[in-house]
């Protein structure tokens, strides 16, 4: 066969010659083939190859199509001859026909990828080599189109692209010898580039974030120098003004002499994963309300500070801060106000720390600081005062002005402790010591605090068995009618006779009972004993009847059905409700709890008196006096003590008495020790009093003897 001569169209599959082309076909066959063997060889090759073969004249009319072509398009071969691609009505064929004509005009071969929808509705893609054929004079007389059906390959490629898109994963290939770099379509999309983008290595490096470029280049250079066959990198690139976080795995190939051949790699967009990880890190190590580090991150930073201290010899200071009376603000104005107060406190503390120092919220209204630049105790006290100054003052919360202060405890390493737990524990102990010393002050840790804490724990353990062991007892302090001088009642006061320590002061063990929850069972026992005493005393026919006052803890409202408990005790002891008064604190009413209100209303409806203990010392919101069934106010002993020497105390007591009269509330003054105090109270109309002037609290057995002295006013 002379390759520069035009081959004739072949016959149909059954051997029948194409209509009107028999003579030209025979002539051209004789001219085109030197022997019948050449013709048979060509025919066998063309009609049995899986590749499509078609010939077009210079006007793009098809003059030959092999069986593979006919099968691919689903049209009989005879119907294919003499037509142009554009006559099929398929839009993509117009561009293909233009490509055929371009090859016929230019005489230059080319590659063409043609995709169209076949008769069955499925997508067909063919990779076609277009080759010009020339006559004896060198002019192009036809174009031979040899194609391969790559539909399955393209479908697989599309599925791969879809999978890569779903996984946000792309791939690339770098051939070192020609220096060509190819990127997958998905990788181009990730980088916001056209799918046929062919960048240089410099183009890609220029997209790397500045903070990552040097590191990435050093890793690549190290892998090359060590002839590593794999490498994993993470880096950020700038795309469309945004930063993408990418993860790349590479395989590197070398020749026998160690020269680079090629590198293959995958690139995955892990930006969402990194954002999720950052979110998890924030949730795990930062307080959601204040955005300060939480306890876990604080411990981690404290560990780092201690490690650095071991190298530098500098001390590490831990300061624990607790807001004073935060619960009152939270309960009075609502949790939203409390949250706003915590956020503002966090902002003030954040402004205070600098350098490597750190501040965290440990929980509730408790904050902690790590300080690393202090040298002596004087510096500690000074910086502690400055911390309190930073957070103390007026806060504007929900259009209200709220005054806030704090109590601060400080511990040091290595002076006080070497471990995280001990430093936090000791700073916490110092902070509670500050609260015990009047709040709004700074206390440094000392070993004495640990001793006190140990003693407190030992006492708490003993208190758990005190009731069962019969170590608790009630003493009664008489309450006197200031008009007649008669005993009208008594307050039941709890006493603890410890088998080793003797009498434990109530101010010592009552707070422990509150903290441990023992106050609930102890309080129930106290109420039972007091009711038994009231019933026994009043059923002897004494006149007037004696009213016994019992202090209630807020815990008793929270941890059991107080009304049911009181009702059961009254029935068991046969105590009349009118013989019982229950004393509560102002703080309980400020919580504005519906449970507290309902319980007090039920108790009052039974005939039990409700009294406010230590009135005037708390955060008084006098509106509760009208909302709750209050019958009696007890003026705190601190006002009575200064009544003769402190004008403010005297005026305050007069104001309380006047208010009680206006609200038709009864009054009891506590802590009366001098006759002059009694005279003052009588002059301004206080109803009754109790204190050492009339008798100390005594046992039930001694109370009868004590009361005889006050049977009538002298």
Outline the structure in words.
- Mean pLDDT is 86; it is low at 1-30.
- This protein has 27 helices and 27 strands.
- A hairpin with a 2-residue loop joins strand 14 (393-397) and strand 15.
- The chain has an 8-stranded mixed β-barrel, surrounded by 4 helices.
- It folds into 4 domains: 22-149, PAS domain (Beta-Lactamase, 2-Layer Sandwich); 155-276, Beta-Lactamase, CATH 3.30.450.20; 286-445, Reverse transcriptase/Diguanylate cyclase domain (Alpha-Beta Plaits, 2-Layer Sandwich); 459-708, Alpha-Beta Barrel (TIM Barrel).
- It is 45% helix and 25% strand.
- Helix 12 (326-333) packs across helix 13 (335-352).
- It is elongated and about 145 Å long.
- With 714 residues, it is α+β, with helices and mostly antiparallel strands.
Quickly count the helices: 27
Helical proportion, percent range: 40-55%
CATH class of the largest domain: Alpha Beta
The name of the CATH architecture of the largest domain is Alpha-Beta Barrel
**Shape estimate:** elongated
Mean pLDDT equals 86
State the secondary-structure class: alpha+beta
What is the percentage of strand-forming residues? 25-35%
Question: How is the topology of this model organized?
Answer:
Blueprint: H1 22-32, H2 36-48, E1 52-57, E2 62-65, H3 67-73, H4 77-80, H5 92-106, E3 110-117, E4 123-134, E5 140-149, H6 151-167, E6 169-175, E7 180-183, H7 185-190, H8 201-207, H9 210-225, E8 230-239, E9 242-254, E10 260-269, H10 271-285, H11 295-312, E11 316-323, H12 326-333, H13 335-352, E12 358-363, E13 366-371, H14 377-391, E14 393-397, E15 400-404, E16 406-413, H15 420-436, E17 442-444, H16 447-466, E18 472-481, E19 487-498, E20 502-504, H17 506-516, H18 518-538, E21 547-551, H19 554-559, H20 562-573, E22 580-584, H21 586-590, H22 594-606, E23 609-615, H23 624-627, E24 632-635, H24 637-641, H25 647-662, E25 666-669, H26 675-683, E26 688-689, E27 698-699, H27 700-708
Parallel strand pairs: 16-17, 19-21, 21-22, 22-23, 23-24, 24-25, 25-26
Antiparallel strand pairs: 1-2, 1-5, 3-4, 4-5, 6-7, 6-10, 8-9, 9-10, 11-13, 11-16, 12-13, 14-15, 18-19, 18-26, 18-27, 19-20
């Amino acid at each position: 066969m002379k390759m520069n001569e035009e081959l004739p169209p072949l016959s149909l599959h059954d051997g029948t010659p194409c209509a009107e082309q028999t003579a030209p076909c025979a002539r051209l066959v004789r001219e085109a083939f030197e022997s019948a063997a050449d013709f048979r060889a060509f025919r066998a090759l063309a009609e049995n190859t899986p590749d499509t073969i078609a010939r077009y004249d210079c006007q793009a009319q098809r003059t030959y199509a092999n069986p593979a072509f006919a099968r691919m398009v689903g049209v009989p071969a005879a119907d294919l001859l003499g037509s142009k691609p554009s006559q099929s009505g398929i839009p993509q064929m117009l561009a293909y026909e233009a490509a055929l004509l371009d090859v016929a005009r230019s005489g230059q071969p080319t590659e063409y990828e043609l995709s169209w929808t076949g008769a069955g509705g499925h997508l067909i893609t063919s990779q076609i080599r277009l080759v010009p054929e020339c006559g004896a004079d060198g002019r192009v007389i036809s174009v031979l189109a040899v194609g391969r059906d790559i539909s399955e390959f393209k479908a697989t490629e599309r599925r791969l692209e879809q999978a890569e898109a779903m996984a946000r994963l792309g791939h690339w290939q770098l051939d070192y010898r020609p220096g060509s770099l190819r990127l997958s379509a998905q990788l181009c999309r990730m980088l916001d580039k056209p799918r046929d983008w062919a960048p240089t290595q410099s183009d890609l490096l220029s997209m790397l974030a500045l903070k990552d470029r040097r590191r990435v280049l050093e890793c690549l250079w190290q892998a090359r120098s060590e002839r590593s066959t794999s490498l994993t990198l993470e880096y950020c690139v700038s795309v469309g003004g945004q930063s993408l976080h990418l993860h790349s795995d590479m395989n590197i190939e070398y020749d026998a002499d160690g020269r680079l051949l090629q590198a293959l790699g995958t690139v995955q967009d892990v930006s969402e994963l990194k954002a999720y990880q950052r979110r998890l890190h924030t949730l795990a190590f930062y307080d959601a309300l204040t955005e300060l580090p939480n306890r876990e991150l604080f411990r981690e930073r404290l560990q780092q500070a201690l490690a650095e201290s071991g190298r530098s010899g500098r001390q590490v200071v831990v300061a624990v801060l607790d807001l004073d009376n935060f619960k009152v603000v939270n309960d009075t104005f609502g949790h939203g106000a409390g949250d706003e107060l915590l956020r503002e406190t966090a902002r003030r503390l954040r402004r205070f720390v600098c350098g490597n120092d750190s501040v965290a919220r440990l929980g509730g209204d408790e904050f902690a600081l790590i300080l690393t630049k202090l040298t002596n105790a004087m510096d500690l006290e000074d910086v502690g005062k400055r911390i309190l100054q930073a957070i103390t003052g007026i806060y504007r919360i929900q259009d209200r002005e709220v005054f806030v202060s704090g109590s601060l405890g400080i511990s040091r390493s290595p002076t006080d402790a070497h471990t995280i737990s001990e430093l936090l524990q000791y700073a916490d102990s110092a902070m509670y010591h500050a609260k015990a010393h009047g709040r709004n002050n700074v206390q440094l840790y000392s070993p004495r605090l640990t001793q006190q804490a140990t003693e407190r724990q030992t006492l708490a353990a003993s208190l758990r068995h005190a009731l069962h062991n019969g170590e608790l007892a009630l003493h009664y302090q008489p309450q006197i009618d200031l008009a007649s001088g008669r005993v009208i009642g008594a307050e039941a006061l709890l006493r603890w006779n410890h088998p080793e320590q003797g009498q434990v002061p109530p101010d010592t063990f009552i707070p422990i009972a509150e903290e441990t929850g023992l106050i609930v069972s102890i309080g129930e026992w106290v109420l039972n004993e007091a009711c038994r005493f009231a019933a026994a005393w009043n059923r002897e026919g004494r006149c007037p009847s004696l009213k016994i006052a019992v202090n209630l803890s807020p815990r008793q409202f929270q941890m059991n059905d107080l009304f049911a408990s009181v009702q059961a005790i009254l029935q068991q002891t046969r105590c009349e409700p009118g013989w019982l008064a229950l004393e509560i604190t102002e703080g309980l009413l400020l919580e504005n709890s519906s449970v507290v209100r309902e319980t007090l209303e039920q108790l009052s409806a039974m005939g039990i008196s409700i009294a406010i203990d230590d009135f005037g010392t708390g955060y008084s919101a006098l509106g509760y006096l009208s909302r709750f069934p209050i019958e009696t106010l007890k003026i705190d002993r601190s006002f009575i003590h200064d009544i003769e020497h402190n004008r403010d105390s005297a005026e305050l007591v007069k104001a309380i008495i006047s208010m009680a009269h206006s609200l038709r509330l009864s009054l009891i003054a506590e802590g009366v020790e001098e006759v002059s105090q009694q005279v003052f109270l009588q002059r301004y109309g206080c109803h009754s009093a109790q204190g050492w002037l009339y008798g100390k609290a005594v046992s039930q057995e001694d109370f009868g003897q004590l009361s005889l002295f006050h049977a009538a006013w002298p």
